[in-house]
Specification:
The protein has 321 residues and is of the alpha+beta class. It has 3 domains: 131 residues, no CATH class; 32 residues, no CATH class; 125 residues, no CATH class. It contains 12 helices and 12 strands. The longest helix is centred in the N-terminal third of the chain and has 31 residues.
């Protein structure tokens, strides 16, 4: 499952991203340059531009079966008033070259799926198929997948990356040999005490609770600091928590269950259901590692480490009756 996800994310960012970024640049030009150029482009200029489109047999931008005059004005660099004065000539050009099914940014698609373009065009309208808004979100998701898989950064650290965060280190000949990402660090990385404590977190020091009545007594005693989950039950102590803590309406710390690290955190307790879920994950990883086609080496190593951690964790705390 993870291999195809990573593979397509890499392909999306290397082969398809240039087209998405080209559409972004064209959108930026329309937003910032058109208000300036539309004051200077005359009707004679528009006639010449329309004639050139006819010579190239380039369809006019369409929307709902009509010429998208607003977008065409941006493409030609003229005002809508000038274009409206040439409505007859616009209709004549449309009759010759036709209209697009929906309005797309006008540039040549460079990305390929085999020998064919990977997409017919990138739509302007957010609700249209293959819109720039949709593809931009997919590109962001692909970037997130790659960074999360290959860097080991936390979710919160990936989300705090900003423009200009990448530094490329080059050798004397100008060849890049190292890439550095700068982001915000979480969970004590900037705190010397947190760094000293980091190595001590490598092994689990929480409680394994397999008796349901014992768990119920613990919950009655400490509620609401007990947070059951699929892979672990959090007996929350903010001084021991590895997650990025949140606060409720009364300012009391609460765990961030989406950032839970049950194999490492000292707040973890296990129920029989938690043990079953962890064992199932280890089995699923084994099946993924044995699947074909073979997963990328780095992904294999990460999955193998994860499976070994789960197995060692469960063996260290055998189930009791």
């Amino acid at each position: 499952m993870h291999g195809p996800l990573l593979g397509w994310s890499i392909r999306f960012t290397t082969e398809f991203a240039p087209d998405i970024l080209a559409a972004c640049r064209q959108r930026h030009e329309h937003l910032h340059h058109w208000p300036v150029t539309r004051r200077n482009v005359l009707g004679s200029d528009v006639r010449q531009l329309l004639a050139e489109r006819v010579d190239r047999q380039q369809p006019l931008p369409g929307r709902n079966g009509q010429v998208n005059a607003f977008f065409l004005a941006k493409v030609l660099g003229c005002s809508r008033e000038v274009l409206a004065g040439l409505a007859g000539e616009v209709e004549q050009a449309a009759a010759i070259v036709g209209l697009t099914d929906w309005t797309t940014y006008e540039f040549a698609i460079t990305g390929r799926m085999g020998t064919r373009p990977w997409i017919s065009g990138i739509a302007v309208g957010d609700s249209d198929p293959d819109s720039l808004a949709e593809l931009s979100r997919l590109l962001q998701a692909a970037c997130y997948v790659i960074i999360a898989f290959l860097s080991g950064m936390r979710d919160s650290e990936v989300k705090h990356l900003r423009r200009g965060c990448l530094q490329v280190i080059r050798d004397a000949d100008g060849r890049p040999y190292r890439w550095k990402l700068a982001s915000l660090a979480f969970k004590g990385e900037r705190d010397p005490a947190g760094l000293r404590d980091f190595g001590e977190r490598a092994r689990f020091r929480g409680s394994v609770i397999t008796d349901r009545r014992q768990l119920e007594r613990l919950m009655q005693r400490d509620d609401p600091a007990i947070y059951p989950g699929t892979y672990a039950t959090c007996v929350f102590n903010p001084d021991k928590a590895l997650c990025q803590q949140q606060h409720d309406a009364h300012g009391k710390p609460r765990p961030s269950l989406g950032h839970c690290k049950p194999l490492d955190c000292r707040n973890t307790a296990l129920t029989a259901g938690n043990r079953t879920a962890l064992a199932r994950e280890a089995t699923d990883i084994t099946l993924q590692l044995a699947s074909r086609p073979v997963l990328p080496p780095l992904l294999q190593a990460r999955l193998s480490d994860r499976r070994d951690q789960i197995t060692a964790f469960l063996c260290s705390y055998p189930e009791t009756s």
